[in-house]
Amino acid sequence: MNEKDLKILEQYDLQMEKIYRGRGSYLCEAVGNIYLFREYHVSEEKACAIAQIVDAVSDGTDILADKFIRNKEGNYISRDRDKIGFVLKKWCRARECDTKNIDEILTVVHHMAKLHKKSDEIGQVELNQNPKICREEFEKRIKEMKKVRNYIVKKKSKTEFELLYLKSFDKYMLVAVKALEDVSKLKERPLELCHGDFTQHNALIGENGIYIVNFEKCHYGSQMEDLYLFMRKILEKHEWDIEIGKKMLNAYIQEKPLDNNQKQELYLRFLFPEKFWKISNHYYNSRKVWGIERNKGKLNKLNEQMDIKQKFVYGL
Questions:
Q1: d(CA 232, CA 271)
Q2: Would you state the pLDDT for residue 288?
Q3: Cα(first)–Cα(last) distance of the chain, in Å?
Q4: Which of 6, 69, 115, 300 has the CA that lies 20 to 30 A from 35?
Q5: What is the mean pLDDT of residues 214-228?
Q6: 225 vs 14, 101, 219, 259, CA distance in Å?
Q7: SS3 call for 130
Q8: Cα dihedral sign for 265, 270, 275, 280?
Q9: DSSP 10
Q10: Per DSSP, what are the bridge partners of residue 78?
Q11: Residue 85, phi then psi, degrees to nearest 5
């Protein structure tokens, strides 16, 4: 993003009083409000759907979100001469959730449950994408991990990372297959609206409350995906502390109870070796010599944490 992109702001019926750089964006001030201006790589139709969801979950509730601003033509996406899309969103003075502050973490989890509860009340929104099904995710990831293993096996000369990968593969695949078998036995549930990227980076603590932002990856699937993602991100930083995990789960359940099916799915999401799959994908998609040591370090750390993570999963 460069200075010429700011010309696009003329497409909005707002007189910006102050503009300063953010991370990959600009923050703008006008009539006492703060706005975020950035590139936005979605269609106008998708932007309309996201805006509809954001308005529906935040209007009349204490759920604060980054609402979209229409331009003078009534569109959410504004384009430059190169047809690159930009969006202007209502923003806030806030910081990311502190991953060391347990009280703050629990408040965010409680807020996530409120968001899910409100999402269940709004009608179907056309997002033009296939729903995400846990079983299908596991199947796809197992297939991809096997592809990486087969690729490495065929190599004549193997790096230290590749040898470590082959040595580690069977134990992770055993767990992955078990998770797939068990998730396939779960009863089908109605599709639910999910945020899609619920991490500490998208849960902002502001003076007026908690802001949930960046709904670009929202989709229909299982809301356990959001809960799992946020819990995993936090628990990785707390060495899979079982007590913190239980507190987070209870904070969610206090607002939105879970049935046995949902609890089992959450358990199986934790059981599945997602981090091993991510390392596999990163290695296979890059296959750069300079990344070998980094991948090896990540895999060594994952192996070291496997026992403590399994204790957490079985104690959940």
A1: 11
A2: 60
A3: 45
A4: 115
A5: 96
A6: 38, 23, 11, 15
A7: coil
A8: negative
A9: G
A10: 86
A11: -90, 145
**Token pair in block for residue 41:** 């790589």
Residue 88 to residue 28: CA distance in whole angstroms:
9
β-pair partners for 88: 37
- 213: phi then psi, degrees, rounded to nearest 5: -125, 170
Per-residue pLDDT averaged across 40-52, rounded?
92
- For the chain, count helices (H), then strands (E): 9, 11
CA distance 196 to 111: 15
d(CA 70, CA 74): 5
Please name every residue paired with 206 in a beta bridge, in sequence order, or none if there are none.
94, 209
3-state SS, residue 246: helix
pLDDT digits (tens, 9 = 90+) for 66-102: 999 999 999 999 998 888 999 999 998 899 999 999 9
> With contact defined as beta carbons under 8 Å apart, do 251 and 241 qualify?
no
> How many CB atoms neighbour CB 82 within 10 A?
5
Q: How far is CA 112 from CA 59, 106, 109, 119, 153, in A?
A: 16, 10, 5, 10, 43
Cα dihedral 264, 270, 272, 278 in deg (nearest 10):
150
Q: Which residue has the tokens 């999963």?
A: 313
Give residues with Cβ within 8 angstroms of 244, minimum separation 6: 102, 105, 234, 235, 238
